C-alpha cells in the first residue's frame, strides 16, 4: 500500500498525462476538421471557386452533418482565428463545460439579469478569496485557493460564451474595442494581479529556502536561518565541516525580482497574444476580398503551427501552469526556472510570428487554388 503522499503524487501525474493526451488528440481532430470540412467564414469561396475539385467536394461537407457531438457543445465545430489560439484547457475543457452549463440553466435565454459583465465582475471576487487562501502555510488550503482560481477562469470562459450566444455569434471571436472587451480585460487583469499578490505574500511570510550541500561550514551565512538535512540530523556544534546541507531563506529582494520577472512575461504574452488575434482576424475574417487565398492560407500547416505556438504561450497557459505549480507545491521552482528563459521563448515567438505574418499576407493575395 502506497503512503498517502506517494498516492497523491501518482494521481496528479496520471491526471496530467491524461489531460496532455486528450489535448494532443483534440488538436489532431481540430487540424483534420479544418482540412476536410467546410468553414463558415469561407463558404462563399468554397462554393464559387473550387466547384470542380474533388478535394473541394469533400471539403464542402458540413462538419455538423457528420459529427455525433452536437455543435452547441463541440469545440471543433466553428474554427475561427481565436479558436485556434485559445489555450487547450479553456478551449477543450472549460468551453464545452460552459456550453453544457448554459444549456442546463438556460443562462443565455432566461437569466437575462446575468449579463456577461456581471459574470466578469463576479469572478473578481472569487479571485480575491482565492488570493487570500494562497497566503496560507497549509498546502491543502492553498490548493483550495487554486480550485477557486480555476473556477475564476471557468467563469471567464462563461462570460464570453454567454455574450456570443446572446449576439448569435458562432465560434470564438474577440470584439476588440467593445465595452465587454475592456470589462473582461480589466477583470482578468485584477484576477491575475490578485493571484500574484497572494503568491508574493506567501513567499514573504514563508520564504523559500536556498540550499548549500558539501560547502565548507566556515563559508556559510550563519546569521541566517539554517536547516540541517533531515537524513544527517546533526546539530551545528557537533557537525563536521563539510557534507551538510544548509538551507537559508531567500531574500525578499530576490522574491520580488522573481515575481516581477514572471509577471512581466505574462504581460508580454498577453499583449502579443491579443495583438496577433486582432491581426489574424483582420486578415482572415474581416476582409471582403481574396476569399480563395484566405481559405488556402487558413488551412495551411504553417498557419496551424503559428496559432499552436500561441496556444501554448498565451497568458491563460501561463496561469494554468502556475496553478499546477502551486497545487504540487513547486511554485518557487517554476518561477525561478522560467524567469529568464521565458522571455527568450516569448521574444522568439514574437519574431517568428512577425516574420510569418508577412508570408501569410502574401499567400492570401497570391493563392488561387488548394495547393
TrEMBL record:
Gene Ontology MF terms in the entry: phosphotransferase activity, for other substituted phosphate groups
Coiled coil: none
GO cellular component entries: membrane
Transmembrane regions listed in the UniProt entry: 12-32, 111-134, 181-203, 254-273, 308-328, 340-357
UniProt keyword annotations, A-Z: Membrane, Transmembrane, Transmembrane helix
Domain of life of the native organism: Eukaryota
Stored Pfam families: CDP-OH_P_transf
Protein's GO biological process: phospholipid biosynthetic process
Protein name, UniProt field: Ceramide phosphoethanolamine synthase
Organism: Bombyx mori
Biological classification of the source: Eukaryota, Metazoa, Ecdysozoa, Arthropoda, Hexapoda
Gene that encodes the chain: 101737048
Amino acid at each position: 500500500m502506497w503512503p498517502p503522499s506517494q498516492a497523491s503524487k501518482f494521481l496528479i501525474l496520471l491526471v496530467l498525462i491524461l489531460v496532455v493526451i486528450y489535448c494532443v488528440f483534440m488538436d489532431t481532430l481540430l487540424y483534420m476538421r479544418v482540412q476536410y470540412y467546410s468553414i463558415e467564414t469561407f463558404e462563399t469561396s468554397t462554393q464559387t471557386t473550387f466547384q470542380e475539385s474533388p478535394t473541394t467536394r469533400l471539403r464542402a461537407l458540413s462538419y455538423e452533418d457528420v459529427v455525433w457531438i452536437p455543435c452547441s457543445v463541440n469545440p471543433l465545430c466553428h474554427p475561427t482565428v481565436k479558436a485556434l489560439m485559445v489555450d487547450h484547457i479553456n478551449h477543450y475543457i472549460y468551453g464545452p463545460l460552459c456550453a453544457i452549463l448554459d444549456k442546463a440553466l438556460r443562462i443565455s435565454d432566461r437569466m437575462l439579469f446575468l449579463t456577461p459583465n456581471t459574470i466578469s465582475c463576479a469572478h473578481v471576487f472569487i479571485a480575491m478569496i482565492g488570493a487570500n487562501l494562497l497566503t496560507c502555510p497549509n498546502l491543502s488550503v492553498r490548493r483550495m485557493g487554486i480550485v477557486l482560481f480555476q473556477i475564476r477562469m471557468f467563469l471567464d470562459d462563461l462570460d464570453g460564451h454567454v455574450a456570443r450566444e446572446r449576439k448569435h455569434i458562432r465560434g470564438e471571436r474577440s470584439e476588440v474595442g467593445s465595452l465587454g472587451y475592456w470589462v473582461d480585460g480589466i477583470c482578468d487583469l485584477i484576477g491575475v494581479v490578485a493571484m500574484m499578490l497572494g503568491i508574493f505574500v506567501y513567499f514573504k511570510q514563508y520564504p523559500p529556502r536556498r540550499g548549500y550541500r558539501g560547502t565548507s561550514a566556515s563559508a556559510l551565512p550563519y546569521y541566517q536561518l539554517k536547516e540541517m538535512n533531515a537524513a544527517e540530523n546533526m546539530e551545528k556544534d557537533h557537525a563536521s565541516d563539510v557534507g551538510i546541507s544548509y538551507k537559508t531563506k531567500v531574500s525578499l529582494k530576490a522574491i520580488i525580482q522573481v515575481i516581477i520577472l514572471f509577471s512581466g512575461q505574462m504581460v508580454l504574452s498577453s499583449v502579443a497574444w491579443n495583438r496577433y488575434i486582432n491581426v489574424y482576424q483582420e486578415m482572415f475574417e474581416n476582409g471582403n476580398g481574396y476569399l480563395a487565398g484566405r481559405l488556402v492560407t487558413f488551412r495551411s500547416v504553417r498557419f496551424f503551427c503559428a496559432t499552436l505556438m500561441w496556444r501554448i504561450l498565451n497568458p491563460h497557459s501561463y496561469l494554468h501552469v502556475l496553478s499546477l505549480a502551486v497545487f504540487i507545491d513547486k511554485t518557487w521552482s517554476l518561477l525561478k526556472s522560467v524567469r529568464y528563459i521565458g522571455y527568450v521563448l516569448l521574444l522568439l515567438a514574437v519574431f517568428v510570428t512577425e516574420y510569418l505574418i508577412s508570408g501569410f499576407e502574401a499567400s492570401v493575395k497570391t493563392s488561387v487554388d488548394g495547393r
